[in-house]
Amino acid sequence: MANLKVQFGSITMKNPLVMASGTFGFGKEYGQLYDIERLGGIATKGLTLEKRSGNTGMRIWETPSGILNSVGLENPGVEAFIKEELPYLNNLNVVKLVNIGGKTLQDYVDAIAMVSKEKADMIELNISCPNVKEGGMAFGITADSTRRIVRAARNATQLPLVVKLSPNAEDIVKAAVVCQEEGADGITLINTVKAMAIDIDKRKSIFDNMYAGLSGPAIKPIALRMVHEVCKNVSIPVMGVGGITTWKDVVEFIMVGATCVQIGTANFIKSTIPLDILEGLEAYMVQEGINSLEEIRGII
Ligand SMILES: Cc1cc2nc3c(=O)[nH]c(=O)nc-3n(C[C@H](O)[C@H](O)[C@H](O)COP(=O)(O)O)c2cc1C
Description:
The chain has helices at 28-31, 78-90, 105-116, 143-156, 172-181, 220-231, 247-255, 266-269, 273-288; strands at residues 6-8, 11-13, 17-19, 41-43, 60-63, 66-69, 95-100, 122-126, 161-164, 186-189, 193-195, 198-199, 204-205, 212-215, 238-241, 260-263. The chain is globular. The chain has 9 helices and 16 strands. It starts with 5 loop residues before the first strand and ends in a 12-residue tail after the last helix. The strands form 4 sheets. The chain has an 8-stranded parallel β-barrel with strand order 3-4-7-8-9-10-15-16, surrounded by 5 helices. Helix content is 31%, strand content 19%. It has one domain (6-54, 73-191, 216-295): Alpha-Beta Barrel (TIM Barrel). The chain has 300 residues and is an alpha/beta fold. The site of flavin mononucleotide has 27 residues, from strand 6.
């Protein structure tokens, strides 16, 4: 049996597979389908201080090799999450990443402070959501705004802090370096790529919010390139995400430097896909005589 264990900063994970925010809810539904304790970690749906009902109109639109989503951070709010969802997650032997979004810097700080009083393993600071009108991705575009929000988040929590960066950032390497300088413990990248689709009969965008976020295999080459660039320029660990559907994709992300990976859209294709990926990854390691993923990390 291969050893799939990975060390992400101070956090040990039994394997490198983390379920990506917004594609796994708070775990309960998938927990009825398979043993989700086999996963390395779960990132919660993005939470905001107050409950949000999300965007109107079309929310998911299939494209060649991907989907566009315009969910708009629908979530129950941090307080309801702590009362109704966190106890279930805390009974699971998986690493819990609480994903936090917000409209204003103060919203982020308050939400992070509330979560930090509870039992959670990491805060995943989402400054990369393209589907909200205020806040969200706006914080992750420039190095200056990234610095401001990471500094505030760092001061608001003792928990390990992972910053989820946007592929739409002006300069992804600069943004990652700023996160490291401001004391982040790790980086997740990438979030969805800002994109759009057109209804030619109605002569307008498919989405009420005009633009949406592209995910799935279509974005994998972009994600790989960004993870590679960032890993060459920071020493904090990186979670690679974007278009992973097979164990081979995971190996690619690890070879470009990721410490662990996140599975997003693939969960919608086949709910038990993480188990197939784990099985494939283990067989690959045995076949190649690899004892630890450390042996192939960042070799490119
Ligand atoms: C329907 C949907 C909802 C998402 N919601 C969030 C979210 O709330 N917070 C966040 O940080 N990322 C969110 N994401 C982005 C994913 O976590 C992930 O970064 C992105 O989809 C790329 O990975 P993938 O190609 O494997 O899906 C969402 C993605 C999808 C498809």
